[in-house]
């Protein structure tokens, strides 16, 4: 079996793996407000310290922890989660504030005052407790998508209004999206890279043995 055949076999195995029980977490530094662009208050409840995405085969659970309590009196306090379900433009709309790789074509919004989260006008199950929040999103709400659920990309950005990009206090992850597994093209590149590295190692061993 050739290296390409092995890579394709491994890729097929990965693609057919069960969807349930997948979780990824981004740990974000404390105090890394989106300066110098951000012009809002340096409120600890707008500073992301961790962002987690889980999928059980039916629902996504999105959770985050802030550096301080989420303030229900903060006017315009929103927690926006962009979701890339495939076909999102790159660079994304935040290139002018140094985050071109934050791409998305779906938007989930949690209102810090009302504690109501929505996706495309549909109200979601959500909770805010202290400095943490959680949102449950049925995968069916995303409709037909170019990527499979495990390949969706997620990014969380708190903000203090719905106007300009300078209202965004933080990104988690920074200039990237959080995916449960890499996209198929990324898997192929990785697997072919492993195959090439293996061939090079074996060639080196043969050269050493011959000498």
Please describe what this structure looks like:
- The chain has one domain: Immunoglobulin-like.
- Strands 1-2-3-8-7-6-5-4-9-10 form a ten-stranded antiparallel sheet, with no helix packed on it.
- The protein has helices at residues 3-15, 184-210, and strands at residues 22-27, 48-55, 59-66, 78-84, 106-111, 117-119, 122-129, 132-138, 153-159, 178-179.
- Strand 7 (122-129) and strand 8 form a beta hairpin.
- It is an alpha+beta fold.
- It is built from two helices and ten strands; from the N terminus they run αββββββββββα.
The geometry reads as globular
Helix run count: 2
Helix content, binned percent? 10-25%
| DSSP E strands, number | 10
CATH topology: Immunoglobulin-like
Strand order of the largest sheet: 1-2-3-8-7-6-5-4-9-10
User: In terms of per-residue confidence, which ranges show pLDDT below 50 for 5 or more consecutive residues?
Assistant: 6-19, 186-191
Task: Give the amount of beta strand, in percent.
Answer: 25-35%
Please provide the ordered H/E string of secondary-structure elements. HEEEEEEEEEEH
Q: State the distance separating the first and last CA atoms.
A: 28 Å
Name of the top-level CATH class: Mainly Beta
Mean pLDDT: 86
Supply the number of structural domains: 1
Q: Characterize the biggest β-sheet.
A: 10 strands, antiparallel
Q: Mind telling me the C-alpha Rg?
A: 20 Å
Class of secondary structure makeup: alpha+beta
Task: Supply the CATH architecture.
Answer: Sandwich
């Amino acid at each position: 079996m050739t290296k390409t055949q092995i890579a394709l076999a491994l890729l097929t195995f990965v693609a057919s793996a069960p969807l349930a029980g997948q979780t990824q977490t981004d740990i974000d530094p404390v105090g890394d407000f989106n300066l110098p662009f951000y012009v809002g208050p340096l409120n600890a409840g707008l500073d992301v310290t961790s962002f987690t995405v889980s999928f059980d085969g039916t629902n996504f659970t999105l959770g985050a922890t802030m550096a301080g309590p989420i303030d229900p009196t903060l006017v315009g306090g929103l927690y926006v989660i962009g979701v890339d379900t495939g076909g999102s433009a790159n660079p994304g709309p935040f290139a002018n504030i140094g985050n071109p790789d934050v791409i998305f074509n779906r938007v989930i919004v949690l209102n810090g005052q009302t504690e109501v989260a929505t996706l495309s006008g549909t109200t979601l199950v959500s909770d805010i407790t202290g400095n943490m929040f959680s949102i449950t999103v049925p995968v069916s709400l995303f409709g037909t998508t170019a990527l499979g659920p495990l390949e969706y990309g997620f990014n969380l950005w708190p903000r203090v209004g719905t106007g300009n990009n300078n209202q965004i206090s933080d990104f988690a992850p920074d200039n990237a999206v959080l995916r449960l597994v890499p996209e198929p093209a990324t898997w192929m590149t990785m697997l072919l890279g492993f195959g090439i590295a293996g061939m090079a190692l074996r060639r080196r061993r043969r050269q050493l043995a011959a000498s």
